[in-house]
Amino acid sequence: MDLRQLSYFMAVASHASFSKASESIHLSQPTLSKMVKNLEEELGVVLLNRSTRKVVLTEAGKVVQTHAQTILNAMQNLLSAVADLTEMRTGQFTLGLPPVIGASFFPKVISDFHQLYPDIRIQLVEEGGKRIEQLLLEGAIDLGVVVLPVDERLFEIVPVVERHLNLVVPLSHKLSGREQVLLTDLRDESFILFHQEFNLHDRVKEACVREGFEPKVAYESTQWDFIYELVCAGEGISLLPETICAKFDPGMVQVIHLIEPDIRWDLGIIWKKDGYVSHAAQGWINFAQQVFGRA
Questions:
Q1: Looking at the structure, do residues 189 and 220 belong to the same domain, yes or no?
Q2: Residue 223 and residue 59: Cα distance in Å, rounded?
Q3: Which of 96, 118, 116 is nearest to 106 (CA)?
Q4: In the chain, helix, strand, coil percent, each to 5?
Q5: CA quadruple 180, 182, 185, 190: dihedral positive or negative?
Q6: How far apart are CA 245 and CA 233, in angstroms?
Q7: What is the pLDDT of residues 163-215, one digit of tens each?
Q8: HTH lysR-type domain location, by residue (predicted)?
Q9: Which candidate among 168, 186, 264, 271 keeps its CA 20 to 30 Å from the CA of 176?
Q10: Residue 170 domain boundaries
Q11: 180 and 257 share a domain?
């Protein structure tokens, strides 16, 4: 048995006709019939019922069709993987980005990469960090950018950004005007956090618990600009990445940069442990490392 036999059989099964299949694959009908007959003899079963007006799969034919498709798909994946080793002229990969991370760092990285490699397509998936981890484990996306740490038993990790969180309070708040605060100073405050599906949510809660208190969460959101508006309205305080805080109007909120202890906001590119990384995806990882290394 060889792959040609399987592919010829699949063509006949798809078209339900030897004549139409022979036209589609540019092979004479007698040769096609012989190849399929050889496959039947090798397997010891009849795959096609030829007595009807249309060629119909037998029960054995349906079983072989299912497994043949798997084999042919695997071969195509093999050829694609080998082709990835050539120059990065074409390619694609799927990248998971939490909205706050995407807005903070990656529009220019993606744009500059596209300028260098215009035929490589990056499909973006915007989800929270926890969901991105799950999608990677399911094989639904190729790469993700998340807040570290993550489980090193499950993921390969390339750190790219080291930052910390800032405290954001309305100008009328009692802490407004301070240059530095203790995390314990926030014990009785109402927190406005990212939704629980975001790793940033856990970073804040874990930091507070380490200081001996559970934060009182008044609101959760998936959008940093909505969190900002709630703080402006005096609905609570928030801890947000410094890159996001740089977008805020100083006439509306006070951003306090020094928090003791420091809450890290370190980012990494991750993918499934021992998972396949295409040449295009690896090229983007290398490019991002260079960009953030320079920064």
A1: yes
A2: 54
A3: 96
A4: 45, 25, 30
A5: positive
A6: 16
A7: 899 999 999 999 998 999 999 999 999 999 999 988 889 999 999 999 999 99
A8: 1-58
A9: 264
A10: 162-265
A11: yes
Q: Are 273 and 145 part of one and the same domain?
A: yes
Q: Measured between alpha carbons, how far is 129 from 98 in angstroms, rounded to an integer?
A: 6
| DSSP H or E stretch at residue 139 | none
List the alpha helices (DSSP H) in the chain.
3-15, 18-25, 29-43, 59-83, 99-116, 129-138, 199-210, 224-232, 242-245, 279-294
- Tell me how far CA of residue 26 lies from CA of 4, 17, 23, 36, 193, in angstroms: 13, 14, 5, 15, 62
> Which portions of the chain are predicted below pLDDT 70?
83-87, 294-295
pTM over 0.90, yes/no: no
Q: Are 96 and 127 in contact (CB under 8 A)?
A: yes
Instruction: Kindly give the interhelix angle for 129-138 and 199-210, rounded to the nearest 10 degrees.
Output: 120
**Measured distance CA(273)–CA(144) in Å, rounded:** 13
C-alpha distance from residue 152 to each of 14, 58, 156, 164 (Å): 45, 49, 7, 22
Q: Which helix (H) or strand (E) holds 151?
A: none
DSSP annotation of 189: S
Token pair of 206 as six digits:
């874990």
Same domain for 48 and 193: no
* Number of domain units in the chain: 3
**Hunting for tokens 């203790």 — which residue is that?**
182
**Strands 238-241 and 143-147: what pairing?**
unpaired
From the number of C-beta atoms within 10 Å of its C-beta (0-12, 13-18, 19+), residue 243 rates as middle
